[in-house]
Design brief:
heterodimer; A: alpha+beta; Ubiquitin-like (UB roll); DNA polymerase, domain 1; five-stranded mixed β-sheet; 5 helices; 5 strands; 15% strand; B: alpha+beta; Uridine Diphospho-n-acetylenolpyruvylglucosamine Reductase, domain 2; Uridine Diphospho-n-acetylenolpyruvylglucosamine Reductase, domain 3; Enolase-like, domain 1; 3 domains; five-stranded antiparallel β-sheet; four-stranded antiparallel β-sheet; 12 helices; 35% helix; binds flavin-adenine dinucleotide; binds FE2/S2 (inorganic) cluster
């Protein structure tokens, strides 16, 4: 049935934040719409809906993606991690804690994307330079705080994870 | 976005059958970083999306010293710059793959998609032209090949016919003392569309003192990426040095036909072609000697 065309709603199975999940969605729905409107995971935000702002950033099968530029049906069989998967209100991740302590957010719209993207960086590179952090996060835009506090919070988390702070 | 139908075939033959059935109403989906945005924002007349990522031939990387690199059309950028042997053998390709969009775009964006979207400023195409890459195309009539410099025909248009799919891109095997570099000029420090992009490839002689062959591709200075063949040919047999590079840069400037838009004036673009050609050649020569 490899040629079968999905036209109406499709049943999609994926692992979302570690839990096996299935949902129904139409082919035109983006992964961002699925996460927010069908799964109630409103952490990922819609900023631009065209790949430029990074507010919708999630992890999909081990790499960062803009979930507004992924179709929900493409998530079949994949593993997706959103900001909700990084920590819980009672148990914030070190990075989330550092963002709070470093005042790395104001309105918070960009924050879930920055957190997911920065977490992916730290897992790959526990000791990034400021330059590396800024380049890695170049696809995440923030209109409020400016980037210095965000970059410093990532640096502080990296130091903490390396046991230096 | 208007309603669409979606299929994820697992063979080139199945994909071709779908593309043939739906003709111009069907589009191939690789990373979707152009296509999904275009379907949403420009409401382009697409009814059927054929996801290419379940087709093994389009996700495969085949690399050998003798045969060169065959890059599946849907391989995303992050896999290219994360591949140590590709980065060592084809550093010019890594230059392009690591500046297409930001990190999350690179998680999905493919070189095949960059080529098939056929934007005048696409960052991989001048590099592919410089390497002498060839597009492997499958269609109802079987397989055919087109050199990348002949692939794009107008902004957003290319030689693909209804029913055809780009399967892979082949980059020739690299001999000792060859090197390539892609450079672009953008108004921002990162994540912007090129005002000008230049890809350069050189083959030096055994001593590394003379240029045996060179190829230069230009981006964002014409309706399609440009193969500046005269500029590359002018370098054949020349001693590496500022004189030869100046002549090639002037010929590259002459090959450009830039326009003025929000990213820069035609005059500035032409000037940049000269500067970037010199620098990209210098970078390619450094890599060839390393
Ligand atoms: C925020 C942002 C930043 C960007 N920055 C850059 C940049 O710096 N430089 C740059 O060059 N581009 C940039 N782009 C454009 C885009 O990311 C690239 O062109 C990318 O390489 C497209 O690849 P894709 O796999 O996502 O293609 P898709 O969107 O999947 O496809 C692109 C087009 O090619 C067709 N197609 C794809 N694969 C095939 C195939 N195998 N056979 C036939 N047709 C096919 C599709 O039908 C579609 O028309 C950016 C885009 C965004 C959203
Ligand atoms: S909402 Fe996806 S990148 Fe802006
Ligand atoms: S905190 Fe408001 S956009 Fe970043």
């Amino acid at each position: 049935m490899s040629q079968s065309l999905i036209s109406g709603r499709a049943a999609v199975s994926a692992t979302v934040n570690g839990e096996e999940t299935s949902f129904l969605c139409e082919p035109r729905e983006s992964l961002l719409e699925v996460l927010r409107d069908r799964l109630g995971l409103t952490g990922a935000k819609e900023g631009c809906n065209n790949g430029n702002c990074g507010a919708c950033t999630v992890m999909m099968d081990g790499r960062l993606v803009n979930s507004c530029c992924v179709l929900g049906v493409e998530a079949e069989g994949s593993s997706v991690t959103t900001v909700e998967g990084l920590g819980s209100p009672a148990g914030l991740s070190p990075l989330q804690q550092a963002f709070l302590q470093g005042a790395a957010l104001q309105c918070g719209i960009c924050t879930p994307g920055f957190l997911v993207a920065a977490q992916a960086l730290l897992e790959k590179n526990p000791n990034p330079t400021e330059h590396e952090i800024r380049f890695w996060l170049a696809g995440n835009l923030c209109r409020c705080t400016g980037y210095d506090k965000i970059v410093r919070s990532v640096q502080a988390t990296a130091a903490q994870l390396r046991g230096e702070a | 976005m208007r309603a669409i139908q979606y299929a994820a075939p697992t063979s080139v033959a199945d994909a071709v059958a779908l593309l043939q059935q739906f003709g111009s109403r069907a589009r191939v989906l690789a990373g979707g970083t152009d296509l999904i945005v275009q379907m949403r924002e420009y409401a382009c007349e697409v009814d059927v999306v054929v996801d290419a990522k379940k087709i093994p031939d389009l996700s495969r990387i085949e690399l050998s010293a003798e045969a060169g690199l065959t890059l599946g059309a849907a391989v995303p950028c992050y896999q290219i710059y994360g591949h140590a042997e590709i980065s060592a053998a084809y550093p010019g390709l890594t230059d392009s793959a690591s500046i297409i969009g930001g990190t999350a775009i690179q998680g999905r964006a493919s070189i095949g998609g960059n080529l098939c979207n056929s934007g005048p400023a696409a960052d991989s195409i001048p590099t592919l032209i410089a390497y002498g890459a060839v597009a492997n195309i499958a269609g109802p009539g079987g397989l055919r090949q087109t050199p990348v410099e002949a692939f794009c025909t107008a902004p957003g248009r290319n030689v693909l016919q209804p029913g055809e799919i780009l399967v892979s891109i082949h980059l020739p095997a690299q001999k000792a003392r060859s090197g390539a570099r892609y450079l672009r000029f953008i108004p921002r420090n990162e994540m912007d569309i090129a005002e000008v992009g230049v890809g350069a490839w050189v083959q030096l002689d055994a001593a590394g003192s003379h240029i045996e062959a060179a190829r230069i591709g230009l981006g964002a200075v014409g309706p399609t990426p440009i193969f500046a063949s005269a500029a590359g040919e002018s370098l054949a047999g020349k001693a590496v040095g500022s004189e030869a590079l100046a002549e090639a840069s002037a010929l590259a400037e002459a090959a450009a036909s830039p326009i003025t838009d929000m990213r820069g004036t035609a005059e500035h673009r032409r000037h940049l072609v000269g500067v970037l050609t010199r620098r990209a050649l210098t970078g390619a020569i450094e890599r060839a000697r390393a």
